[in-house]
Amino acid sequence: MQSYLFLVVTTALLLARPHHGQAEVYTALADMEGLLETEGVLIESLSTFIKAQEDMLNQLRRYHADFSREHDKASQDVQTYLSNPINAYTLVKHLTTDWKDIENLLDDSKMKEFQLNVSNYHTVLKFPTDEDLNGAAVALMRLQDTYKLDTSAVAKGLINGVQYSTGLTAGDCFELGRQSYNNKDFYHTVQWMTEALQRYNEETNKTITKADILEYLAFSTYMEGNVHSALEMTDELLTLSPNHNRAMGNKVYYLQDIATKGLVKKKGEDGNSDIISNSQQLTVVEKKLGDIDELPERELYERLCRGEVKRSLAKEAKLKCRYVHNDNPFLFLAPFKVEEASLSPKIVLFHNVLSDPEIETIKHLAQPRLKRATVQNYKTGELEVASYRISKSAWLREEEHPHIATVVRRVEDMTGLTCDTAEELQVVNYGIGGHYEPHFDFARRGETNAFKSLGTGNRIATTLFYMSDVPQGGATVFPHLRVALYPKKGTAAFWYNLYRNGEGDYRTRHAACPVLTGSKWVSNKWLHERGQELLRKCGLDSNED
């Protein structure tokens, strides 16, 4: 587009150029010969302009066909379509990158009216930002790492062997790699630029240039420690674009690096050798778990998310399911269905305790108010956003709707505790790859400002309602306990955060695994110490649940 605009400008300048020393040209053939040269330039410029317009129309037709196909598919079931993180990422990419490309394509005087209309839409419609695009890309990387997803499979729309969406183009993969590069995440840049290159080679209608891919891939490969491969890619890039300034500079730097460090290319460094280390020969499934107790919390958390860590059959055999009425006359007729998930600390699941109408009411009231979920700064007590918690939340009061009041009363029936000093009902919806890394619900000793403004003491217990089913991912995991709770619509999890003596139970450290597919809705009711003195008697033993 830029090249043909340059030629149009050149033509305009040529036509405007004064012909010094002659009032007319027809009186001398020599001057006429000069005019033929002028016309030749104009014809060539016009040919280039026409071809550019045709190329632009063909590209617009491809965009239109691709967008229409995906939009029609999404319209059949909007919620299911958007619950797929790949579809969500692609939609965000369309509205941040692809439509900008279209606007640039239409940067022509004949298209100004349409371009103006498209630009005006930015003021009246909701558009994702560049930050949204980066966030969607980072979310896919998080899912890829946590669930050990193969890059090529994800690019094909496959998640754990299930085809959820159409595949990504080379341009889509390139953009994922570029976002990783901007985040200085060269590991994922290499993965996605390699996939982009593979898809570029397979594409009939190219969605990105090979030179663009090689530029990012070469440098990221160098940053990952493989200078020889980086040099080879740079040489290939210079073959395609001999005057590429960055490539020329990088080549000099790579050669100096090799000479300075005395690096000798090792067999296998270019990926063509069969020699790999023993650890590389094992797939994730084949690797031994080793001693679980020695695993870092992060790795244990991710393995729990993948379902690779199980409790022993002996511990599982001690867990029971029962009907519970808590001496409540009404519950004698309709007791709670309770499933034990852990005996110490006590973690239980209450099944079928939220009805569909109640869930819809809660979601309906919360949705307009959803804001980026925050965490409490343990030093200042102030609420702030954090990269380790990706979700949006809203708070609902009992008096806002009878369903809210009913749910709060039900929490009291379930737990035997009072909600008079509890926090408002927090409603949470997790975004693309939404997660909350390992954390405590209670305030630790050093966190003196936490919950200070409430004046109701620490969080004695947590009630977590699952308001949606999640096809893949989204489990609530307790790394220390090797426990994973999977979302089931209408079910609630309950546990005490504090021992009877008021000390925090560090075994309750838990996390929300990234949502792989589906939309995860939950609501929390955090109960505080004040008012529970006669309902949960205190104790002196630090290990008394």
Automatic annotation (TrEMBL):
- Signal peptide interval: 1-23
User: Which positions fall inside the Fe2OG dioxygenase domain?
Assistant: 421-529
PROSITE patterns assigned to the protein according to its UniProt record, in alphabetical order:
FE2OG_OXY
Superkingdom classification of source: Eukaryota
Annotated Gene Ontology cellular components are: endoplasmic reticulum lumen
Task: Cite the entry's keywords alphabetically.
Answer: Dioxygenase, Endoplasmic reticulum, Glycoprotein, Iron, Metal-binding, Oxidoreductase, Signal, Vitamin C
Give yes or no: UniProt keyword Oxidoreductase: yes
UniProt-listed Enzyme Commission number(s):
1.14.11.2
Q: Which GO terms describe its molecular function?
A: iron ion binding; L-ascorbic acid binding; procollagen-proline 4-dioxygenase activity
* Keyword field contains Oxidoreductase: yes
Where in or outside the cell? Endoplasmic reticulum lumen
Q: Which cofactor does it need?
A: L-ascorbate
Q: Cross-referenced InterPro entries, in alphabetical order?
A: Oxoglu/Fe-dep_dioxygenase_dom, P4H_N, P4HA-like, Pro_4_hyd_alph, Pro_4_hyd_alph_FE2OG_OXY, TPR-like_helical_dom_sf, TPR_P4H
Main subcellular location: endoplasmic reticulum
EC top class, as a word: oxidoreductase
Similarity-based family? Belongs to the P4HA family.
Known function? Catalyzes the post-translational formation of 4-hydroxyproline in -Xaa-Pro-Gly- sequences in collagens and other proteins.
This one is known as procollagen-proline 4-dioxygenase
Give the organism's phylogenetic lineage. Eukaryota, Metazoa, Ecdysozoa, Arthropoda, Hexapoda
